[in-house]
Amino acid sequence: MQSIQVSKGASSVKNGYESITGQINVEFKKPQATPFADANLYYNTKGKLEANLGANLHLSDRWSTALLGHYEILNKAHDDNDDDFADMPKVRQGSLMSRWAWLGDNYIFQASVKGLKEHRESGQISSHHSPLATHPYTIDITNERYEAFVKNAYIFNPEHSSNIALILSGSLHHENALYGHKQYNSDQRNGYASLLFETDFNEYHNLSTGVSLNHDHFDFDETTPGAYAQYTFKIGEQFTLMGGLRWDHSNIYGSFITPRMHLKYSPNDILTLRGSIGKGYRTNHVLAEYNYLMASSRQIIIDDNLDQEEAWNYGVSAALSIPVGEKILDLSAEYYYTTFLHQMLVDMDSNSHAVHFTNLVGDSYSHTWQAEASYELFDGFTLTATYRRTNVKSTYGGVLREKPLTNKYKGLITAQYKPGLGKWQFDATLQLNGGGRMPDPYTTADGKPSWDTRYKGFEQLNAQVTRFFRHWSISAGGENITGRRQINPIIAADDPWGPDFDATMVWGPVHGAIYYIGIRLNWEKI
Question: Cβ neighbours of residue 469 under 8 Å, at least 6 residues apart?
């Protein structure tokens, strides 16, 4: 990967109608970048091996191509808590991506083809005190995915950045999943096309407009044409106001409107204020998104005519860069509120031996607060602290309740030290995870609840040290060094074919500390 961009709240209408609480964009290394070749190997104490490679080649002043690959394998089962179930699945995964680019004076072309195949295997295993069961409970999941996209852009007025672009993409995804006796097989085919026009009238005014068509074949066929317009008013780096409106029509849910607005104000180099408001929609594909809930004896109940999810999101944030001594203290605070008008509810409370997918009747919302501070205490040493608190509630059985298996808070304290000439780098992260509510338990024969109604908070410590050389580096570190884990995550593990078995009540890590070593080789043309 080259970078990751995170958009919080409702994003631009150019990106579609589905963003409700944010979007994540993963940017892979581009073929037109400075010529490079790199590879890295990773191995940990659980026996997992990973290998990545990447390289690009400039075929001419305008043509370039890149090849990116990934492979990982873990073929050993681990059962640290002696419940005769694997703590983590065996996995074998490989993916390959080919990218192409042509950069002309007025025409830009990019294309990519990617393929991925993965096999995961878990369930009951033999241990030192128990042989493999006669009819073991097995989890077996195979995924195959193929993607391709083509991007074309023509700049017909460079002075005003006036351009027209056509984006075409498609994907095929096949999944075979087995959870005990429950089987889920699915095929998804998606096609997407978008035609966009954008121009700057002058340094203050920008207009972006376009049309799109999305076709999704899954449990059902949904075709959604749409159109949008977005206006941006900008005064240098001090003030930006962006408002957008899009219309889409689903052959299943009919027409719907998506309004969104964003505001940014930076009166000086110290303070930046942001605000956003927007609506979002999402189509549910129940078993594709929640098939892991089949790893239990719970009855799966799916109501007919589930609503398209619809929600409003509101957000405000402030960022400060304050000179303190010879360094800069970076402070930020943000608040986001999401309220659902329509939502698919995953109800595991009304019946502790069933999971019910149904339409929301009542309120459902989330409040999220986050604060962050970062400061370079001395040359090369930076300390960052982040705290996020959430309040997520939905209506279950007519009662507004806390959403189960959702942490009340998360905290991060990160320290990084890169002394001298930068040949060494030391990183440490302490992660704090708040407790939360469990789905309502059933009552055992002796009158006790089958599991605790709440789980407590826990911490995890990660650390890494890296030594850099001219064209390679070596690193070693550990994850979950504190060894915190959920001791008995599987309910009725001794009777997986019985009525009480449930492997979905997981709120924390199920494995202990993991230590690893990695080697990276890199070359970049200067």
Answer: 423
